[in-house]
UniProtKB/TrEMBL annotation:
Domain of life: Eukaryota
Keyword Repeat set for record: yes
Protein keywords: Repeat
GO annotation, cellular component aspect: mitochondrion
Protein name: Pentatricopeptide repeat-containing protein
Residue spans of the PPR repeats: 195-229, 230-264, 265-299, 332-366, 367-401
A single BP term in Gene Ontology: mitochondrion organization
Organism: Acorus gramineus
Gene Ontology molecular functions: mRNA binding
Coiled coil: none
One Pfam entry name: PPR
InterPro entries: Mito_RNA_Proc_CCM1, PPR_rpt, TPR-like_helical_dom_sf
Length: 424
């Protein structure tokens, strides 16, 4: 049985000297999860990284290194991230995938490409999966022009249906629907056949571009061409018919899918639940939730988000939140932000503080959005001194560039910086 994140976090906060008996169950998964739980507090994340190494003689592996690198890179500390990579016995493709994504999200596509080149020259990782990870990261973060140039002009690897799919998804991320259409039409002109994933991506595109009825036609075309659908394709068309005709037709298609031998996954149920909740049909949604469990499909965070978004009774929302946690489904940071924002707008400060307390007890470090929701709720209730304290805390952690003028917040004397452990 692994140590819980909250237990490991308490060790860092309370231990001042080495313990005589290292924790017997200190394992890479628990350590990496705990580092990731400090994803919005890089100083604490790195402190914990060194603490388990120094105090408990823990030997870091690829997973724990990757978790620390991800936190550092999230806060643009790429130099220290590279220093950690230099310490690793053998950095993996996953290690560089993390860097590609962080560079791309920081709007540094040229640095992501340079990281790929370093991986090739210094670590001998110039393999197609690494190149695919780079292109995927660039497309995910809307640097599709650079990705297209890499795929079609630089020519490190042959152009495939997979690379076309990634570029198509990249244009979808940008919302360039006309370009998506052009790319879709030109797809097969270059001798590249559309596969199941191509259709799934383009069906999602036409839904988002306001033409959900087109997704149904594409689904039919796909079947006519002999491309066998999978659950993802069914999920997409279930969403499309739900947008056009409401949840009843989606439920009929859901049953047709089951009759055809396809087993619905959690995303299938989530699609139906979202449609029912949006329509205010909560009794049916709860019934579907129970049926989901009976079918052996466990609800995930997105399942509960559908309810949290549309339910308006605070008591019902908190009851469902408690049920979610007790079932073993751990809330994400955006779960907490959603609830903080909802209760703050409704003026229920006590519930805002309850959610904040639950967030801390469950081992989540608040991000900027969580702090903003809490501070807004406090300001709304006229509790300016407490709002100012949380604003100072947010600035000290480096989650905000400057304090709020309307609060007259001053930057704390203890500036948030990484502790120098003499390791790098």
């Amino acid at each position: 049985m692994r140590i819980q994140i909250s237990t490991l976090r308490r060790l860092l906060h309370t231990s001042s000297a080495p313990t005589p008996n290292p924790l017997p169950l200190l394992d890479p998964v628990s350590v990496s999860n705990t580092i990731s739980s400090y994803s919005n507090d890089p100083s604490r994340a790195i402190d914990f990284f060194h603490y388990v190494e120094r105090v408990h003689a823990f030997s870091h592996d690829t997973r724990t290194f990757n978790a620390a690198i991800d936190v550092l890179a999230k806060f643009f500390d790429f130099d220290r991230a590279w220093s950690l990579i230099a310490r690793m016995p053998s950095p993996s493709t996953d290690t560089f995938r993390i860097l590609f994504n962080r560079y791309a999200s920081a709007r540094l596509p040229s640095d992501a490409i340079h990281a790929y080149e370093r991986a090739a020259s210094e670590f001998g990782l110039k393999r197609e999966p690494l190149f695919t990870s780079l292109v995927d990261a660039l497309c995910e973060h809307k640097h599709v022009i650079e990705a297209e140039e890499l795929c079609f002009k630089r020519g490190d690897f042959p152009v495939t249906t997979k690379s076309h799919n990634m570029i198509l998804r990249g244009y979808a991320k940008l919302g360039w629907w006309h370009k998506c259409r052009e790319f879709w039409v030109d797809f097969e002109k270059g001798g590249i056949l559309r596969d199941l994933h191509s259709y799934s991506i383009y069906m999602d595109i036409v839904i988002k571009s306001g033409k959900p009825y087109m997704a149904v036609k594409l689904f039919e075309e796909m079947i006519e061409r002999g491309v066998r659908p999978d659950v993802v394709a069914y999920n997409t068309v279930i969403q499309a018919v739900g947008v056009v005709d409401g949840p009843d037709r989606s439920i009929r298609l859901f049953r047709e899918m089951v009759d055809n031998g396809y087993r619905p996954n959690v995303a299938t149920y989530n699609t139906i639940l979202k449609l029912l909740c949006r329509a205010g049909r909560f009794d049916e949604a709860y019934g579907f939730l129970e049926g989901m469990r009976k079918d052996g499909v466990e609800p995930n965070v997105i399942t509960y988000h559908s309810f949290f978004k549309y339910l308006m009774k605070p008591k019902e929302v908190m009851g469902l939140f408690d049920r979610m946690v007790k079932s073993g489904c751990q809330p994400r940071m955006d779960t907490y932000v959603m609830l903080l924002r909802k209760f703050g707008k409704l003026g229920f400060l006590r519930l805002v503080m309850d959610v904040w307390k639950a967030m801390e007890e469950n081992g989540c470090s608040p991000d900027k959005f969580a702090y903003d929701c809490l501070i807004d709720a406090l300001v709304k209730k006229g509790m300016l001194d407490m709002a100012r304290r949380y604003d100072e805390e947010m600035v000290a952690k480096g989650l905000s560039e400057r304090p709020r003028k309307e609060l007259g917040t001053s930057i704390l004397g203890g500036e948030c910086c990484y502790e120098d452990h003499g390791v790098f």
